[in-house]
């Protein structure tokens, strides 16, 4: 272990961090100063002495990753980025939480250099860190599996700081349990155990032994208590020793409980809920600066010697980077094909001709779209090594397991049905949807691999916070959500999604794709993988659907297209449908045509993609002159009114489902061709185009 050098300038720098945290929140008028003050030594130690990073190249492939799971304490990260030389300035700290600043209230990935993930919703960050650690191991397995541990340019660590709030959120249990099972020795979590949250003393809601909890998960655990002497002593050496011991532990993730006093050394507000989430006030800031030996009249004061000393980490980072480059260059020289693959995957480019591997399905056959999706994954396995994923214990239902691919699992946890190794491909999340969503985000954030995760559509509710963050961060994560409607049948209303499609479509930046048949499913996968700047959800059927004539890869990519034109080319009615209801729409069209009503059927698998088309294209599909319209989907109507207009009708489901064979449910709930035809006639009637018949007097 390298000896810790901790000089008077380092101690002064830590105090400067505390003062900057107070000043920034005071100027903003809001924020969270307390944790940034008490974590100042820990964060400074990580950035200055422990982590491998290069402030002059925040995207360096070989860097360690840092996750601030307690994103409310954004200053804990921002001030270290400023001191280390990532490009933030004192003016940026002065503009904390202001319009168009680089220092928003919570760290935002892609907005501020050095921020590895967007955090704030508690618990998400630690689950992101687990995903990053898994991705690092997968990356190692793809590109350098033969190297001895610790010798590969792909070996690095994930460091994460968590708070009491992160520990209390249920997602931390799910993610931490899986991390222990996966034996992620490249993951180190520092738990800021300060006993304070917004409602003051956490004893009001938290009494468990958190360290024992992590021992039970199979983590390597340590405790560093800065209060154990009865006085508060920031024993930086003890924390450094613990961090180095965690780094040396390669077969288990590491958990370090760090007992701190929030807001130290504020004389009146330290160790209170008041300092957690609000400004200290002018008097308390002045009193604290006096305790620190600083001039209370000065704000945002950073002595030149302190800044110069702290910025020295950039030179050390560049030296580490240069040393790493030597081993990386040797690896590239010895692995030219792997190096080319790494370059392609890092750019999120798809290989030439990859789409020719996609399967096609014979017209007139019948296949569930979940099964078609499984066949797509099997076909793409040898073509796209970056594509990997699994299911929340629903592999047999979601059909997310690529045939012949090993599981991503320590060898000792292989099972009879799932063989694998630490560098495997098939992910097993267990029944942990909430963590699965955030872990997928961490995988996507780490690098170029493309993760997917499956569960039933109804359980997307458990994933929603992570899905929302994926959309916010523009991450190319794919959700394979099956059993997408009452079509799952006998499992009943608890498992039948009704409101979910439109609830998910309400998330900006999330593509919700509901293909009509097996070929549309393959086309949907193609379009999803060609997008690298947003997440996508595939909503897939349990029940078989006919493979229909006329589906179009281009049409699916555009989100909506004319699947079946009116017999005379001049529709009086347009029927819009998605997924399993496209078959119903086509049958409804036959009824209407037999009644002399020319009818167009539009398949609209993705309203987000359709909305992104130019006006001219949208007019060719849904001409504004055609006001007689029907939308049909086995869920709530909600957003369909935008597409059918004031004279249109929606054949929908505005109540929960029931337990019965799916054909019975569709019939009893009025999701039938006859109901579609009746809705079309009702729309025509609103336009005065309903013609009666002569029946006599």
Write structural notes for this entry.
This protein is α/β, with parallel strands linked by helices. The chain has 26 helices and 22 strands. It has a six-stranded parallel beta sheet, with helices on both faces. Strand 21 (629-632), helix 24 and strand 22 form a beta-alpha-beta unit. Helix 16 (433-446) runs parallel beside helix 17. The radius of gyration is 29 Å and the shape is elongated. The model has no long low-confidence stretch (mean pLDDT 97).
Any idea what the radius of gyration is? 29 Å
Number of strands: 22
The whole-number mean of residue pLDDT values reads 97
- What shape does the CA trace take? elongated
- Helical residue percent? 40-55%
Beta-strand share of residues = 5-15%
User: What is the SS-derived class?
Assistant: alpha/beta
Strand order of the largest sheet: 12-9-13-14-16-15
Structure keywords:
26 helices, 697 residues, alpha/beta
Question: What's the helix and strand layout?
Answer:
Layout: H1 8-28, H2 33-38, H3 40-50, E1 65-68, H4 74-84, H5 90-94, H6 124-143, E2 158-162, H7 164-168, H8 170-182, E3 187-193, E4 196-197, E5 200-201, H9 210-217, E6 220-225, H10 236-248, E7 254-259, H11 282-291, H12 304-334, H13 336-346, E8 366-368, H14 369-380, E9 387-391, H15 395-398, E10 407-408, E11 420-421, E12 426-428, H16 433-446, E13 450-456, H17 460-473, E14 478-482, H18 500-505, E15 511-513, H19 518-530, E16 536-539, E17 544-546, H20 553-557, E18 561-564, E19 573-577, H21 581-594, E20 599-603, H22 607-611, H23 615-621, E21 629-632, H24 641-644, E22 649-651, H25 662-668, H26 673-686
Helix pairs in contact: 1-4, 1-11, 1-12, 3-4, 3-10, 6-8, 6-16, 8-16, 14-19, 16-17, 21-26
């Amino acid at each position: 272990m390298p000896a810790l050098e901790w000089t008077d300038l380092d101690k002064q720098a830590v105090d400067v961090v505390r003062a900057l945290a107070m000043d920034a929140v005071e100027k903003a008028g809001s924020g969270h100063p307390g944790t940034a003050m008490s974590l100042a030594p820990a964060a400074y130690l990580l950035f200055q002495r422990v982590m491998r990073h290069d402030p002059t190249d925040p995207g360096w492939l070989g860097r360690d990753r840092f996750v601030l799971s307690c994103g409310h304490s954004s200053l804990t990260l921002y001030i270290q980025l400023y001191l280390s030389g990532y490009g933030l300035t004192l003016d940026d700290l002065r503009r904390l939480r202001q319009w168009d600043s680089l220092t928003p209230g919570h760290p935002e990935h892609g907005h501020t250099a050095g921020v590895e993930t967007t955090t704030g919703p508690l618990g998400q960050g630690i689950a992101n860190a687990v995903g990053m650690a898994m991705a690092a191991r997968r990356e190692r397995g793809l590109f350098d599996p033969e190297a001895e541990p610790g010798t590969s340019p792909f070996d690095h660590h994930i460091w994460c700081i968590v708070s009491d709030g992160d520990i209390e959120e249920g997602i931390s249990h799910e993610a931490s349990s899986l991390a222990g099972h996966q034996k992620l020795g490249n993951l180190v979590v520092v738990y800021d155990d300060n006993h304070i949250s917004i409602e003051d003393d956490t004893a009001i809601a938290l009494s468990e032994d958190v360290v024992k909890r992590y021992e039970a998960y199979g983590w390597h655990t340590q405790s560093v208590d800065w209060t154990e002497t009865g006085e508060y002593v920031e024993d930086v050496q003890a924390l450094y020793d613990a961090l180095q011991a965690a780094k040396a532990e390669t077969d288990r993730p590491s958990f370090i409980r760090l007992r701190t006093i929030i807001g130290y050394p504020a004389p009146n507000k330290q160790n209170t809920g008041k300092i957690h989430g609000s400004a200290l006030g002018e008097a308390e800031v002045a009193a604290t600066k006096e305790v620190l030996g600083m001039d209370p009249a000065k704000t945002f004061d950073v002595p030149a010697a302190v800044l110069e000393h702290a910025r020295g980490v950039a030179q050390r980072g560049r030296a580490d980077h240069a040393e790493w480059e030597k081993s990386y260059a040797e690896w590239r020289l010895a692995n030219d094909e792997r190096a080319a693959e790494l370059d392609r995957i890092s750019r999120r480019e798809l290989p030439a001709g990859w789409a020719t591997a996609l399967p096609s399905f014979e017209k007139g056959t019948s296949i569930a779209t979940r099964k078609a999706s499984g066949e797509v994954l099997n076909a793409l396995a040898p073509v796209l090594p970056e594509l990997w994923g699994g299911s929340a214990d629903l592999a047999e239902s979601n059909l997310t397991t690529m045939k012949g691919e090993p599981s991503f699992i320590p060898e000792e946890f292989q099972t009879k049905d799932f063989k694998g190794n630490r560098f495997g491909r098939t992910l097993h999340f267990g029944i942990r949807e909430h963590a699965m969503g955030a872990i997928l985000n961490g995988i996507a954030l780490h690098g170029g691999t493309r993760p997917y995760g499956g569960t039933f559509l109804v359980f997307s509710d458990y994933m929603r916070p992570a899905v929302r963050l994926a959309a916010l961060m523009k991450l190319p994560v794919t959700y394979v959500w099956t059993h997408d409607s009452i079509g799952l049948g006998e499992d009943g209303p608890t498992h039948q999604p009704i409101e979910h499609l439109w609830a998910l479509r309400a998330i900006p930046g999330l593509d919700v794709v509901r293909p009509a048949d097996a070929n549309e499913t393959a086309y949907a996968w193609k379009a999803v993988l060609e997008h690298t700047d947003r997440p996508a959800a595939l909503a897939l059927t349990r029940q078989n659907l006919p493979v229909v004539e006329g589906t179009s890869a281009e049409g699916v990519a555009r989100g909506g297209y004319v699947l079946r034109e009116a017999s005379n080319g001049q529709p009086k009615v347009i029927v819009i449908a998605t997924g399993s209801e496209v078959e119903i729409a086509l049958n409804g069209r036959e009824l209407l045509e037999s009644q002399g009503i020319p009818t167009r059927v539009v398949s609209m698998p993705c309203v987000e993609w359709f909305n992104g088309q130019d006006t001219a294209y949208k007019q060719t599909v849904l001409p504004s002159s055609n006001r007689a319209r029907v939308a049909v989907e086995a869920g709530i109507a909600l957003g369909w009114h935008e597409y059918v207009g004031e004279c249109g009708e929606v054949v929908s489901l505005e109540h929960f489902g029931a337990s019965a064979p799916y054909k019975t449910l569709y019939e009893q709930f009025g999701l039938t061709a006859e109901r579609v035809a009746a809705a079309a006639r009702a729309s025509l009637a609103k336009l005065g185009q309903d013609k009666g018949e002569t029946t006599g007097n």
